[in-house]
UniProtKB/TrEMBL annotation:
This is NAD(FAD)-dependent dehydrogenase. Its cofactor is FAD. The lineage of its organism: Bacteria, Pseudomonadati, Pseudomonadota, Alphaproteobacteria, Rhodobacterales. It comes from Thioclava dalianensis. Keywords: FAD, Flavoprotein, Oxidoreductase, Quinone, Transit peptide. The keyword Cytoplasm does not apply. It comes from the Bacteria. InterPro entries: BLH_phosphatase-like, FAD/NAD-bd_sf, FAD/NAD-binding_dom, Prot-tyrosine_phosphatase-like, Sulphide_quinone_reductase. Residues 2-110 form the Beta-lactamase hydrolase-like protein phosphatase-like domain.
Amino acid sequence: MDIKRIDARLSVSPQIAPADLEAIAQAGYRSVICNRPDGEGADQPSFAEIEEAARAAGVEPAYQPITAGMVSDADAEAFSDLLMRLPGPVLAYCRTGTRSATLWSLSEAGTRPVTEILAATKAAGKDMSGVARRIANGGHTPTDIADATFAVVIVGAGAAGIAVAASLKARQSDLEIAIIDPADVHYYQPGWTLVGGGVFRPEQTAKTMGSLIPRGVHWIKGAVAAFEPAQNAIILDGCRVVKYKRLIVCPGLKLDWGQIEGLEQTLGRNGVTSNYRYDLAPYTWQLVREMTGGRAIFTQPAMPIKCAGAPQKAMYLSGDAWGRRGVLKDINIEFMNAGGVLFGVKDYVPALMEYVRKYDATLNFFHNLVAIDGPAKTATFEVKQPETETRRVTVEFDMIHVCPPQCAPDFIRVSPLADAAGWVDVDQATLRHKSYDNIWSLGDVMNAPNAKTAAAARKQAPTVADNVIADIKGRGPVSQYNGYGSCPLTVERGKIVLAEFGYGGTLQPSFPKALIDGTKPTRAAWFLKETLLPPIYWKAMLRGREWLAHPEPLSPK
């Protein structure tokens, strides 16, 4: 038997045999539903045989035969009635279990979010993307074809989405483009480190979304529920359907605060903060200003995360502020990193270690934050050092800066666009989807092995724009992305180690070494970060002006 749990009440499985019913009863199942018509397969037991064995084992049997590929709206309602009537937990089966999972998905539509239904069935090995539109439509077959159709649809209006829209418009001004995003405000997230360091005000990092959508681009203010790439369709919450000729996917990452027990209940108080949220970055600076002694912890979860250097940037700027106030000697700084190295590109580590020593910070590798008790001011870490048994340690703190675990959004992870790990599956050079030729992805959700930074999106947007326009003209890809990413590591107020690198950790400096040596802390890099990069972001990158971001021609294979 291959039983897969859907939720607490229902599990599904492929065809069972009468001899299996005793074990099914011992596993705790009180009812069984047969969704396979008799006579569908030569070696298939009849429902009568299953029914007899079920009653002998003390299990309630039910027969709801469904022809493969023909689950009607009425079938889903009848399945829901069975689940309500039968004692649970219930095991439903058919030839593979897919019909049973489909019936459950449609019966739950309207009572659970679409992404929750898709995630539950995917976890059980059942892909429900083919009926996602029906799920979004309350479990009923939609009668509409599409509410709107565009030449290019972009999912996500963050740095990547607006930049690629602007780059496309710069190349073909009459192109019909729509951006889908529910947010009212667009944030310059790289600025939050400087908000937490007392350099920027939070309002400097935010603008209204409407003011940034490129001229002539349609803004669909909604959330994506599911993708139907075989039909070139996107389903929005509320069951609106948007169709496209070409699709670009770049919605950004999900910050999974809930993975850390107790964290959501204490964020923004009890000394618990994070520069990964607009409203919390000012609290970081408040804690730094007020702290005169005790233990300050800075955490980093397992990769991937947005801007891999951000957790330690907060540590360096805090240490610098305490040093300037003369209280550093009374503060114990600890960096808790789930990984095994300070920074993934070794060329920058020597400069960073100088500041670790300057601030007398303790580095604790393989320490992953799993729980926080805010009122008690304790943090619990799971320690997974190589070739040692996993253990847990609990540490007291006076201040803790948390970097949350991160993953692709639910509607990406459960979609047909995702690879096995939940990321949009693209060719790392052209950023074109590996299975769907009219889909591209950039930014944080695609699976190319690059750093997830705004600087990476700045380079990716022109590449995708070039390749989409080439495709419209009937040509193959013309440009490639070389993995460029940048992480300006703010090691002290006024100095930055400007890490710039591509695939495989290859250094890719944008400036002559005489101007900015990225492996050393420089004031020139700080000037770039504080003064030049914000206007470059707002007035160049988001407007299709590709300063230092011109696409690289695709290398012949």
